[in-house]
Fold this protein.
Amino acid sequence: MAETVLKINDIHTFYGQIEALKGISLHVDQGEIVTLIGANGAGKSTTLRTISGLLAPRTGSIEFMGEVISGMPVHTVTAKGVIQVPEGRRIFPRMTVEENLGMGAFLRTKDPAGVQASMDHVFQLFPRLKERRTQKGGTLSGGEQQMLATGRGLMASPKLLMLDEPSMGLAPVVVEIIFDTIKTLNDQGITILLVEQNAAMALQIADRGYVLETGNVVLEGPGKDLLVNEQVRKTYLGET
Amino acid sequence: MNFTLSYLLEQTINGITLGGLYALVALGYTMVYGILLMINFAHSELFMAGGYVGLGVLKLLADPAIAKGGLSFLAPMQAFFNSGTAGFVALIAVTFLISAIVVGLMGVFIERFAYRPLRHAPRLAPLISAIGVSIFLQNAALLWISSKQLPYSRADGTSFVPAKTAFTVFGVSVSTMQIMIIVTSLLLLAFLDTFVSKTRIGKAMRATSQDREAAGLMGVNINSVIALAFFIGPALGAVAGVFNGMYYGSVKFNMGFIPGIKSFTAAVIGGIGNLRGAMLGGFLLGIIESLASGFISNAYRDVIAFIVLILVLVFRPGGLLGEAVAEKV
Ligand SMILES: Nc1ncnc2c1ncn2[C@@H]1O[C@H](COP(=O)(O)OP(=O)(O)OP(=O)(O)O)[C@@H](O)[C@H]1O
Ligand SMILES: [Mg+2]
């Protein structure tokens, strides 16, 4: 059996008085693509933000490679190789493409050769970024910004890459590119936790999936099974 | 009043000197705003603190009256600092270094205890806290140091900086003090600009000001970056405070108020949050004020400074170098 990379035990996360996560448990194994799907406001982003340390769970625990990371500040979690590509891209608008990618490798100060290799890898995955490396991030198109956000995440040499709605607002061709890239990265050995509105595509590439509803996991199973699940088809795949 | 070229030049040099001071102080406002979207109302009092710390250091290092007044172990050191050019340069360097470090640490301390606990509070809360810190610092200086204006000189009245004219261009004399202020402020500004655009820590600061959460996700320790901004800004403000004391010859507990408002205006004119904008705004405001007081009337200098502010805001609401960025939603 594959080693468990991420293990979440019954986390409850609050925004002030609002309980956004009401006891989520899930796990991600080495080399898997795991997807979280669910309607708007189900708590998908909150789950990722709690894992990365942007939020702290009030109760429950998160373990990464056997170490408890819940309660650690975000930069410490990042340093362990848990990398979140946030919802809405969040690139640095007044930095160039190259500087944005450089920020992704902020903590890899002792490995300039590795950083250069990651940069080459990103440019190979997204040739468009290479053409625009001296352009300011804020002036890129939406699709290019998503490529940059994903590339920036890769620059950190992630052990676990968490992507929050990487296909949001993109044209179908660009969505294809993004999903192909996710698959390629996974083939190269990166473990992936993927949050998606586009449930059909996400479940197709995922090994396993979890369905979230108002802060709870309501369904889980292999991607293929969820894809044919009656309830999933009705609610998330828009079938009647 | 005369309208000769040399008078114009003289007023311009006065303006650049004043502008250098404004620019140094304006950077502190703009750095904090850029990262925390907060106006640090206590910044003008850190400028004042710089003036006082500088005076204290100068007296300890170079006022024989202090040595004679019981601290005789200072005498040999004072002999060195009061001897010739080397002593003078060393005196100035040590004074600026100590003032910048002490006031920089005050800035870090203030952020840690007066602002950080309010980081997730409504935006008004840290502003009110800043006003509180400002009032506290002014009153501390008033109560514990003096309510009077203190001369920036030795007990016998001699200035720490030789007043002799350094050189003459087109019949205009430029003082040692002016050259020191202009050169030091330009050097510090160039240094800061390079630091922020080229170094790893500088980039972390820029990233934090553009998107704090995203910077955290890159592994940037946000609290360290904020603390650093609260060190650098007040340290530069302290340098300006010492210069201000030397240039105008005195310090007082409320000396920060007017330069604070002017420097904040300079930061807004340049585009609040933008470092080069603060520098540009500082020099522009200094020169305009100086020309206005020289060619129109000294009484109108402040009015004209604020008219410039209003004009800039009407035509470029984001400031000269600021970008009209839509409010984040
Ligand atoms: N900053 C916040 N303050 C208060 N409530 C919040 C905040 N962010 C999210 N919430 C609430 O928490 C719940 C979960 O939000 P979350 O962003 O995790 O949803 P999501 O599943 O990512 O949705 P979407 O698909 O729309 O991105 C929602 O009810 C939302 O209103
Ligand atoms: Mg979301």
Q: What stands out?
A: Confidence is low (pLDDT under 50) at residues 325-329 of chain B. Chain B has one domain: 24-255. Residues 111 and 117 of chain B are 9 Å apart (CA to CA).
